[in-house]
Amino acid sequence: MKYIVSISGGKDSTACLLYALNNLNRDDVIPVFCDTKWEHELTYEYLDYLEHKLNISIIRLESEGMLSLCIRKKFMPNRIMRFCTKELKIKPFNKWLYENFVSKNIDFIVIQGIRREESKSRENTLTFVEKKQTYKGKSFIVKTLYPIAYWSEKEVFEYIAKNGIEVNPLYKRGFTRVGCYPCVFNSKYELMLLADDEEYLQRLRNLENEISKILNKKVTFFPPERDKFLRSKSLFAPPDYQVV
Ligand code: SF4
After folding, report:
1. Would you call 4 helix, strand, or coil by DSSP?
2. Is residue 146 in a domain?
3. Is the CB of 36 under 6 A from ligand 1?
4. Which of these, 96, 150, 168, 198, could form a disulfide with 46 (CB 3.0-4.6 Å)?
C-alpha cells in the first residue's frame, strides 16, 4: 500500500506529511505537489526546505499553468467558476494516479489536509472517504484519508512546531492560506500585501492584459470592487488602465 500525501506548501498539508511520516512506513509515503506555475517563490523554496529537512523527495506534477489555462479558456477563474483547481491540480493529479497506480493495480490511499474548521463547506468532512474519479473516461475509486479533519488551526501549528519544522514563511507575512499567488480566494489583507509586491502584481497585470487583448475588453482577475481596492493600495497601476 502506498500513501500519497497531497502537498500544497501550506500548514495543513505539512501537518499531514509529518503525520504520515510519523505513523506509516516512510518508504510507503509519497508526497506530491501539483504545480500551477502560479505559486509564490517562497512556496517553491519551502518545498525544497521540506525535502532537505525531512530527507524526502516531493514529486512535482506539471500543469499547463495559470497563464496558459486562462488563454485557452479565454477567461479567468473566480470564486464561483473555480476551474483553476480542476484544471491545474485535480486533472494532473488524477492522470498521475491513474498512470502510476490504478493502471498498475498498485493499492494506494491519498492523504489530504482538509479540516472541518476551515469553512462551512468543509464542516462535515469525514476522516475517510471513497471518491470516484475519472481519467480519459475511465472511472476509478480514490480512497482518501483526512487525518487532521478534526484538528484546530492551533493544533496544526503546534504539531508542526513539535516536529521541529518551520511553516511556509508566507504565514509570517500575514497570509492565512497558501496556494496560488494571487488566488481568487485572497483576503483583502492579502490583496494589500500583493499591492506592495511589484513582481507578483506585474505578473497578475500581465495575465489580465493577455486576456483583455483576446477578449478585446479590459478584464480583471478580481471582481471590480476588489480590484479597485487593490489599485487604491497599488504602487503599480498602468495609467491608461480602466476598471470595467
Ligand atoms: S489556489 Fe486559488 S487560484 Fe490556485 S487553483 Fe486553487 S483556487 Fe485557483
Report:
1. strand
2. yes
3. yes
4. 168
